[in-house]
């Protein structure tokens, strides 16, 4: 009876693992095959990865899209870390009744669906375009600005600050550091793992963001990776080998980040709800 | 005194940027949307029409279709995924389980993929002459290919399968980290009292995980009410409007059809109201006293 239960557990978990991994394996295998082989259901790797790669470079604007995505995600991550950690620290270290009230109001923004913000934001950036075209529609700034500050991250940093030993800050003040000095010289260096977790989550969601860039980036040369993949995916005569190669390359940065920093990623996800 | 005022000013400067950004890019647009929901017109030429947009909701068949599609995803997919994630995490929490790290990483892997990338992969896998049909036919489980993408019923199933694949591992991680905090001696005592696995699960695990189950069901509900990327890239909302979601309808009203920003804002307030109602409902169901 007990061994039957064991067998069931292993069979069930193996099935779940196979189902979870299978689409990735299929993507990798398909990137080494020609489109015809993919449509015929070939499940073994072929010799066409090189050919698919050169086809990608000839026919798809992959490099510009990668650069656009990299610029947006890296800038978003750096700015988000600065803004959210300053605020999370500020709300916790300089607590007051008014600030607590403001904090709970900020949390309400987590309930706002992006679909509700998209139209007014589009109009907002449309009118900004007329006076300041460099941050208006179809610019990298217009993608970054509305997504860079999230109540979730502020909450995350505030929760982590609760564990921070406060006498370290006092010691810094005694040594004559200014409040900003205390923050940058003492708080930031000791909170490295919190920053790592927050940075991974922010980078991933920025790299994968689809709806807002779809609305606000209009010229093809501004396209990010998700926009490029979506565009390829909706073509009427898809070259499966080429598309799978593009998806493979586009997934690599997040996959590498994930495998290198899996612990931090999980800590970032679950840390805020503990 | 002067010193105190200075420190106070500095303390505000820490939170100032964040507060300004959230107000500018969340609260201000929400007020704009509220005003727009009482306006109508094409493009930027809007004029006030009172509650016309809100009455239009009740006669708009596309709105009703997208609303019922969104509800269907919510009612079937969210409970299915949460039960599945709970079940897997309880199995994974077993101390004597071998290959635990492999199972956990494998099942979590979908949660780090881009929504667009996995949607395109699923679209091809579930194509009429795609790999899923080929395999099912080779195994003689079906006689003719299933129209996973082009049949109104099966297209909904495909979307539900896709979202469940993407998010089960994500929710599992939350349960696993909560399960690690449960003291083993509680289960030990239950076993001595003769409680079997089922009783242990329903009498110990579920009650102790209640706050985290509440958290994940609220985030999943909010996520499902905003569903966009998958539907846009797997079925484009079709066939007809049979898989279209509220978010996609707002997108279409604003950027695909002749732009009607006013009415789009009205539909978006429908989502806001739904999110508020569902969140309150789930808090009540869980008995918010300790949740």
Could you describe the 3D structure shown?
The complex is a heterodimer of chains A (274) and B (291). The two termini of chain A are 37 Å apart. In chain A, helix 3 (49-59) packs across helix 14 and helix 4 packs across helix 8 (151-162). With 274 residues, chain A is mostly helical. Chain A is globular, with a radius of gyration of 23 Å. Chain A has helices spanning 2-30, 35-39, 49-59, 62-93, 97-108, 114-131, 140-147, 151-162, 166-174, 179-190, 192-208, 211-216, 225-233, 240-260, 262-271. The model of chain A has no long low-confidence stretch (mean pLDDT 88). Chain B is mainly alpha-helical and 291 residues long. Chain B has a single domain, classed as MetI-like (MetI-like fold, Orthogonal Bundle). Chain B contains 13 helices and 2 strands; from the N terminus they run H-E-E-H-H-H-H-H-H-H-H-H-H-H-H. A two-stranded antiparallel sheet of chain B has the order 1-2. Chain B is globular and about 70 Å long. The two termini of chain B are 43 Å apart. The mean pLDDT of chain B is 87. Chains A and B meet through helix 1, helix 4, helix 5, helix 6 and helix 10 of A and helix 1, helix 3, helix 4, helix 5 and helix 6 of B.
């Amino acid at each position: 009876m007990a061994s039957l239960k064991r067998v069931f557990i292993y069979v069930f978990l193996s099935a779940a693992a196979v189902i979870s991994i299978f689409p990735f394996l299929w993507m990798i295998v398909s990137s080494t095959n020609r489109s015809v082989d993919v449509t015929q259901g070939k499940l073994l790797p072929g010799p066409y990865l090189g050919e698919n790669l050169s086809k990608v470079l000839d026919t798809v604007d992959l490099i510009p899209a990668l650069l656009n995505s990299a610029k947006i995600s890296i800038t978003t991550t750096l700015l988000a870390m600065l803004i959210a950690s300053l605020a999370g620290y500020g709300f916790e270290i300089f607590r007051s009744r008014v600030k607590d009230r403001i904090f709970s109001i900020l949390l309400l923004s987590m309930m706002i669906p992006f679909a509700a913000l998209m139209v007014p934001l589009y109009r907002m950036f449309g009118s900004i375009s007329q006076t300041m075209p460099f941050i208006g529609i179809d610019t990298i700034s217009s993608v970054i600005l509305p997504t860079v500050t999230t109540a979730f991250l502020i909450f995350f940093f505030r929760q982590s600050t609760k564990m921070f030993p406060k006498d370290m800050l006092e010691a810094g003040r005694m040594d004559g550091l200014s409040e900003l000095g205390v923050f940058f010289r003492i708080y930031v260096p000791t909170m490295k793992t919190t920053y790592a977790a927050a940075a991974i989550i922010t980078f991933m969601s920025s790299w994968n963001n689809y709806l807002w860039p779809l609305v606000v980036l209009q010229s093809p040369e501004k396209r990010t990776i998700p926009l490029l993949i979506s565009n390829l995916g909706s073509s009427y005569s898809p070259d499966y080998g080429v598309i799978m190669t593009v998806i493979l390359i586009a997934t690599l940065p997040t996959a590498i980040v994930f495998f290198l920093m899996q612990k931090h990623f999980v800590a970032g996800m679950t840390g805020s709800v503990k | 005194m002067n010193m105190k005022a200075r420190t106070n000013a500095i303390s505000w400067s820490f939170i100032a940027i964040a507060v300004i950004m959230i107000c500018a890019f969340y609260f201000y647009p929400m007020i704009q949307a509220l005003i727009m929901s009482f306006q109508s017109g094409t493009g930027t030429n809007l004029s006030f029409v009172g509650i016309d947009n809100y009455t239009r909701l009740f006669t708009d068949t596309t709105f009703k279709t997208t609303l019922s599609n969104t509800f269907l995803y919510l009612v079937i997919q969210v409970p299915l995924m949460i039960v599945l994630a709970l079940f897997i995490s309880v199995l994974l929490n077993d101390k004597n389980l071998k290959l635990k790290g492999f199972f956990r990483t494998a099942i979590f892997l979908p949660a780090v993929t881009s929504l667009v990338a996995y949607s395109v992969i699923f679209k091809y896998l579930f194509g009429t002459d795609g790999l899923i049909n080929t395999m099912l036919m080779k195994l003689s489980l079906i006689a003719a290919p299933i129209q996973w993408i082009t049949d109104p019923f099966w297209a909904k199933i495909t979307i539900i399968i896709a979202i469940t694949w993407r998010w089960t591992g994500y929710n599992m991680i939350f349960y696993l980290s909560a399960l690690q905090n449960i003291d083993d001696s509680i289960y030990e005592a239950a076993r001595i009292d003769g409680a079997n696995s089922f009783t242990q699960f329903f009498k110990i695990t579920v009650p102790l995980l209640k706050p985290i189950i509440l958290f994940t069901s609220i985030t999943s509900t909010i996520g499902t009410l905003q569903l966009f990327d998958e539907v846009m890239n797997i079925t484009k909302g079709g066939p007809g409007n049979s898989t279209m979601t509220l978010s996609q309808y707002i997108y279409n009203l604003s950027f695909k059809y002749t732009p009607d920003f006013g009415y789009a804002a009205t539909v978006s307030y429908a989502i806001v109201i739904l999110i508020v109602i569902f969140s309150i409902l789930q808090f009540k169901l869980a008995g918010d006293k300790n949740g």
